[in-house]
Write a structure and sequence with these properties.
About 40% of the residues lie in helices and about 25% in strands. It has about 190 residues and is α/β, with parallel strands linked by helices.
Length: about 190
């Protein structure tokens, strides 16, 4: 099986990485397929199993960890595990496509460390912590406690930005999408 390239987009929640990744997936010339992460949390709102995430029970998730079925995994919040199944990457590479990830900072850096030559790791930086809080509140998908947890985590995540290959500052979404498209196109040419 021919291995493709890995494109990692990481950022604190509310930074715009998901919107940027969706934009890139809509560009046929990039030949990208989305890596669906597995999670032990419940689905939110309109999320679809197998499209947005693979929703796995906590005991099942732990069985996968023990069996070493994950490329990377993390307990992001208490009893909320997220990870990338090795089978997901193999599935995408078997299609002859490059893998794009919308993934937390720790997971993104783990993928980069395992596949340093094949991976472009991009950090999407929000305008400010205050702007992040506004964006998360606008989503209306989580309690104030959850939002505060995400904001506290964001401060730690922002400190990891220099460990990524590239940083995109998302002050203007259209500009950020254009920058992301150029970065990915240039990386895939090599």
């Amino acid at each position: 099986m021919k291995k493709g390239k890995l494109i990692v987009f990481s950022a604190p929640s509310g930074s715009g990485k998901t919107t940027i990744v969706r934009h890139l997936l809509g560009i046929p010339d990039l030949n990208l397929a989305f890596s669906v992460s597995a999670t032990s949390r419940e689905s939110r709102g309109e999320e679809i199993d197998g499209k947005d995430y693979y929703f796995i029970s906590l005991p099942e998730f732990k069985k996968h960890i023990k069996a070493e079925n994950f490329l990377e995994w993390e307990e992001v919040y208490r009893d909320n595990f997220y990870g990338t199944l090795k089978s997901e990457i193999e599935r995408i590479w078997a299609l002859g496509k490059n893998v794009i990830f919308d993934i937390d900072v720790a997971g993104g850096l783990r993928i980069k460390s395992k596949f340093p030559q094949e991976t472009l790791a991009v950090f999407v930086k929000p305008p400010s912590i205050d702007e992040l809080k506004i964006r998360l509140k606008k989503r209306s998908t989580e309690s104030d406690d959850k939002i505060n947890m995400r904001i506290a985590k964001a401060s730690v995540e922002l400190a990891t930005a220099p460990q990524f290959d590239k940083i995109i500052k998302n002050y203007d979404l259209e500009v950020a999408k254009g920058e992301a498209q150029q970065l990915v196109a240039d990386f895939l040419k090599d």
